[in-house]
Amino acid sequence: MKRTVSILLCAVLLFSLAVSAFALSIVPATDKTVVKAGENVTVTLSIDEALQAVNGMAVRVYFNSTLFEKKSYEPLDANISGLTSTVKTDEVGSYITLNYICTAASGADIAAGEFCRITFTAKSDLTAEQTASFGS
After folding, report:
1. C-alpha torsion sign, points 69, 71, 76, 77
2. Summary mean pLDDT of the chain
3. What percentage of the chain reaches a pLDDT higher than 90?
4. Which of 7, 10, 11, 21 holds its CA 20 to 30 A away from the CA of 118?
5. What single DSSP character describes residue 135?
6. Helix (H) or strand (E) holding 24
7. Is the Cα dihedral 46, 115, 111, 26 positive or negative?
8. Rounded to whole angstroms, how far apart are CA atoms 47 and 61?
9. How far, in Å, CA of 79 to CA of 104, rounded?
10. Does residue 41 contact residue 99 with C-beta atoms inside 8 Å?
11. So what's the pLDDT on residue 130?
12. Measured distance CA(17)–CA(24) in Å, rounded
């Protein structure tokens, strides 16, 4: 009995490790490396691998809300339903949420590549050279 439980636990452990190896990555890239106060910077979110049968997804886009404010967004997929206007904060930092919803029972396929573009404006009270990053 103990041997059966041990083999079962090993199989579950190996399966859980295999699932984490196929984790999705959404990669942000900016169109500028230097931004002055009042200027815009566009962050393009790209998916590193194609997805199949997706019904819903929420992507947190992290940014420094003391340096930037969201200006606009351009969805590059018809099922992107919106970007929250409220900036929220958790233990990682400040973020806005990009929502993807497909109402078809079978879901929708999402191709690898560019997924959405979000434009931020550097706040006017930006007075010194500072480093900022965007993440998801």
Report:
1. positive
2. 81
3. 58
4. 21
5. B
6. none
7. positive
8. 13
9. 10
10. no
11. 65
12. 14
User: What pTM value is reported for the model?
Assistant: 0.76
Q: Is 113 left (phi over 0), alpha (psi -120 to 50) or beta?
A: left
Answer yes or no: are the C-beta atoms of 52 and 35 closer than 8 Å: no
- Cβ count near 80 (within 10 Å): 20
CA distance 16 to 6: 15
Q: What angle do CA 106, 99, 23 make, to 5 degrees?
A: 70
Note the pLDDT tens digit of each residue in 59-82. 999 999 999 999 999 999 998 888
106: left (phi over 0), alpha (psi -120 to 50) or beta: alpha
Q: Which positions of the chain have pLDDT values less than 50?
A: 1-22
Q: Sheet with 113-122: list strands edge to edge.
A: 26-30, 40-47, 113-122, 68-75
Exposure of 53 in the CB half-sphere (CA atoms within 13 A): 2
Ramachandran angles phi, psi of 3, nearest 5°: -65, -40
